[in-house]
Amino acid sequence: MSTDETWQLTDLRDVLKLYAVADPTAGHSAGTFASASTQQLYDKLLAQGATDAEAAQMAARRVESTGITILTAATTDLTAPDVLQLCANLLAASRAHLVAVGGPPNLVARRF
After folding, report:
1. What are 98-102's contacts with CB under 8 Å, separation 24+?
2. How far apart are CA 8 and CA 85, in angstroms?
3. Alpha carbon distance, N-terminus to C-terminus of the chain
């Protein structure tokens, strides 16, 4: 796991702990997920990305764009400033990652 991803996960776990929300990643090693659908998507994208560099970039774009969609939707009912800041940070990181793997740069400027 990259340093950036590790920091993001640490920040997320800190907020979950602060609000006494169960951590869905607890007890799972990197690449394993509690949700069967998430595991299937991960396995599918990992296999697709292993074929060549272009396929890897396509898989990475799918990961980042899916994360952006999920985070954007999750922020609609949030009011806690620390949670909103975390989501803003995660969105900014995902948008930057998306551009880094050839995604559309217009997503970088979007705000939730």
Report:
1. 98/61, 98/64, 98/65, 98/68, 101/57, 101/60, 101/61, 101/64, 102/57, 102/61
2. 12
3. 27
- Three-class SS string for 29-79? CCCCCCCHHHHHHHHHHHHHHCCCHHHHHHHHHHHHHHHHHHHHHHHHHCC
Structure tokens at 57: 């970039």
- How many Å apart are CA 10 and CA 107, to the nearest integer? 25
Rg of the chain over all Cα atoms, to the nearest angstrom: 15
Contact between 110 and 98 (Cβ < 8 Å): no
Q: What is the pLDDT of residues 5-38, one digit of tens each?
A: 888 889 999 999 999 999 988 899 989 998 899 8
pTM of the model: 0.80
